[in-house]
Structures are given as structure tokens and as C-alpha cells.
Amino acid sequence: MYCSLTMSSSFTLDKVLANAKNLVTRLKDQEGTVESLLMQTQDMSKKVESMKMVSGKNSILDHR
Question: Which DSSP state fits 63?
């Protein structure tokens, strides 16, 4: 069956492999972007929680 492959089949296979490699590269780049956004979101969440704690403490002190 391998012998029945034509030159155009070989070029098509090369194109598929090149596209797959390109896709993997793009997915890795996007994964890095997602990880960065996730870290930024987690940092922001921690800051908001800290601000809520400070605000709550100030509120308690104001009522004394």
C-alpha cells in the first residue's frame, strides 16, 4: 500500500505535519497566556480579599 503513495500525497502529508507543528506552537503560546492571566486573576483576588479585610476592620473601629 505504501508504494501506491504519489508525490502529491507526500506533499500533502508534509503540509499536514507542518500545520500540526504550527498548531502545537500556537497552543503552547496560548497556554502561556492563559497561565499568565490565571496568575494575575489570583493576585487580584488576593488583593480584593485583603481590601475587604481592611475595610471590615475599619468599619468595626468606626462603630466603637
Answer: T
